[in-house]
Amino acid sequence: MGTITRSFANNITTSGVLLPASLTNNSIANVTAYNASVSTGGMVLLSTQTASNSASLSFTSSINSTYKEYQFWFIDIVGRTQRVNLEFNLSTDGGSNYNVTKTTTFFATYINEAGNDTALSYQSAYDLAQGTGNQNLAFNITNTGNGSASGLMSLFNPASTTYVKHFISTASQKWITSDFTEFYEGGDYVAGYGNTTSAINAVRFQMSSGNMDGTILMYGIV
Q1: 53 lies in the same domain as 33
Q2: Which of 71, 96, 161, 207 would be a feasible disulfide site paired with 219, CB 3.0-4.6 Å?
Q3: Distance CA 150, CA 155 (A)
Q4: Are residues 63 and 169 in the same domain?
């Protein structure tokens, strides 16, 4: 039996049915869609929002019990104000209020462009202890020298009415010193929970001051 024949045979059940994993663009030429009964898994894009000198980006629909995890990918976020932070908050009332009580932890790594100043440190100024304010995801983002911040925040089981709402975030940003003379790469790592058993149904992103530019994608994770 030839290699191609063996490979094809391995994707057929004993009853002669092709396995869903065998149905890809590599196995069948010019595939553009699958039958609804074929599970593709992975990430489902639910919403794309782009800020252009915008005060905030809010996701107020499609956050429900459909998925156990929602991911927010923020891409090239930059403030119209120099050295500001990307922040977010949660809502239980569809976005009328963003004030969920949160407890969080935040640590950061950084290195300057010269490679002679590095650190790994806990950032107590950016955590919350049963606070209702915005949670920082990336700080001191520069809006000069092509600076921006990009990263990912995951929100777990937001529709639960039994458990608190956990979230984690990882961000990479180009930031600038307070005297505006030196650029750094910063890696920011946040974990926390919204201390509520009410369902979370809206999420808002904004800068700590001023307006913002950039794109945020919301995915449901199958």
Answers
A1: no
A2: 71
A3: 17
A4: yes
The pairs formed by 174-179 with CB atoms below 8 angstroms and a separation of 24 or more are 174/141, 174/142, 174/145, 174/146, 174/147, 174/148, 174/149, 175/83, 175/110, 175/139, 175/140, 175/141, 175/142, 175/147, 176/82, 176/83, 176/140, 176/142, 176/144, 176/145, 176/147, 178/83
Is residue 178 within 8 Å of 218, Cβ to Cβ? no
The pTM (predicted TM-score) of the whole model is 0.82
Under the banding of pLDDT at 50, 70 and 90, the label for residue 145 is confident
Mean pLDDT of 96-108: 98
What confidence tens digit (pLDDT) does each residue in 62-87 have? 999 999 999 999 999 999 999 999 99
pLDDT of residue 40: 55
Together in a domain, 93 and 15: no
30 shares its domain with 48? no
pLDDT digits (tens, 9 = 90+) for 29-75: 555 565 554 455 699 999 999 999 999 999 999 999 999 999 999 99
What is the span of the domain harbouring residue 9?
1-39
Cα 192–194–199 angle (5° rounding)?
A: 140
Structural domains counted in the chain: 2
d(CA 216, CA 205): 9
Are both 73 and 5 inside the same structural domain? no
Identify whether residues 185 and 214 lie together within a single domain.
yes
Task: Give dist(CA 175, CA 184) in Å, integer.
Answer: 5
CATH code for the domain in which residue 65 is found: 2.60.120
